[in-house]
Records
---
Amino acid sequence: MSEIIVLTCASGKQCNQIIPALYQEPSIYKLRLVVHSKHSLDRLSKQYPNAEVVQADLDNLDSCGRILHGATTIYYVSPTFSPHEVQYGTNIIDTALSESRKPDSKFLHFIFSSVLHPEISKLLNHDRKRLIEEYLVESSLPYTILQPSHFADNAIGRLLSLRKDPTPDPIFVAAHDPEVSFSFSCVRDHAEASVKVIRERSRHFFATYPLVSTLPMKYSEYVRSIGAVLGKDITVRQLSYEEAVEMYCRLFFGSLDVEQNFRDAVERLLLYYNRRGLVGNPGILEWLLGRPGTTPAQLARLMLQEAEAEIK
Ligand SMILES: NC(=O)c1ccc[n+]([C@@H]2O[C@H](COP(=O)([O-])OP(=O)(O)OC[C@H]3O[C@@H](n4cnc5c(N)ncnc54)[C@H](OP(=O)(O)O)[C@@H]3O)[C@@H](O)[C@H]2O)c1
């Protein structure tokens, strides 16, 4: 009988590239996809008819109990910019512990997709994950922590759409200072590493992996490298801080009408990114995947090839 793998934030960009690899192996894995919204429940139920798609409230221990019941593994992605992240994380860790202590338990592995440098206390979305990591490490559960950086994929749709711009030097609007450097992660690389960790399980017990795809590069260099793929000389225009907060609130929460305790994380992130980026070394990812990480330019080329193949 196939084992149950639970994935949270199943509608998000990370799981979007993890699920297809596991879904192809129904004799090994039965997927339980955890969503928050009704919209995602309907979309994933249609997209993955052989998976179990469940709408759950991570604030509710009964709900957490239902999503972990009978599972061997949880791949835990934490909801974006939520002020309740720590509560959700500790609830799910407590529930996994209870599940692992049942006499007939099948529970074996808690994988937390966290963030690069959770120790950065100036960033709320990092600091909250630091506390979840601490709780997990002390839980006695077999765990693996994966730490991706800022995803190169975040702005790639907007950048690739500039290929249709009639001018040779289109403008890209950046939410933060383009001269600040980042080590980017690529969702594909992160998903491939995640699937490997799920499949290989005990080889990765009690490990924490910083997973970045590139060495530090200026945000403007990231933009220019994708421009070169498109044959465009992209000019970067930086939004004012207030405009950038507005843009991010619309992007992440769908509206400007959002509680201050949700806005806090966005406001601090943009302040931080105007002065400092997230930097790391791609060596661990390279070791895990047996190949170098994907550069933003390679990602752009891959996505253009996929778009062309879809049209044909
Ligand atoms: N973006 C980056 O560059 C980056 C880099 C490193 C780490 N991260 C971390 O990645 C995590 C997000 O993962 P992602 O990028 O794959 O997701 P995403 O594409 O940002 O999608 C957001 C997800 O959050 C879910 N969600 C929202 N509110 C929820 C709630 N109250 N309870 C449960 N789920 C909720 C949504 O589910 P529904 O669709 O059902 O509402 C959706 O699946 C965050 O913790 C973020 O800090 C992001």
---
Amino acid sequence: MSEWFETLPGLHDQVWQQLTHGAARRDVAARQPTLATISPDGWPEARTVVLRRAVADPAMLEVYTDTQSDKIASIAAHPRAALHFWEPALALQVRLQATVEVISGPTVADRWQELPDGALLSYGVTPPPGTTLPHALDYTKTPDQSRFCVLQLALGHIDVMHLGTYHRRASFSATDGWTGKWVSP
Ligand SMILES: Cc1cc2nc3c(=O)[nH]c(=O)nc-3n(C[C@H](O)[C@H](O)[C@H](O)COP(=O)(O)O)c2cc1C
């Protein structure tokens, strides 16, 4: 019986277990991955987000954000993103690449309604995120559904690194049906 990290299907399944847990629970690293985008002028930019939904087939993730945050302009200019997390309990690094679609309005009203009151405050800060303030607390937070949007990430590539006694790295692509291949770590 092989360990999950010794086979390509085992690694691929583990990635989706972590992503599925991340979307549902707070106690895994996949809950708060780093989302990287490319700014309109070509700079890499990375920030922590909460993973809200994970679907293995077709491979898709969802993250929620504010329509007035800078990442929306970045995604409009370059509709591509990378997502990263390191799960120390499994010695597992996961790196994902995706194309991104921004969805707002009635299509995502169900997601807004499911959010707890405290979370709604993240969508509707005045002035908009990134605006210079005279003092640190010179802003107000009022939930505003028109500012709520969903980043839908259609995954194209998954890179996995397991740091066990031996280091193993695998690369999976949508184009090869996620069968994957071993690559040098
Ligand atoms: C633990 C944690 C979770 C966060 N979750 C989200 C999130 O789910 N969505 C989001 O837009 N920003 C989230 N943020 C804030 C972002 O990291 C970032 O500061 C903000 O979105 C502005 O980024 P931008 O200027 O690149 O658009 C979170 C920050 C932390 C520290």
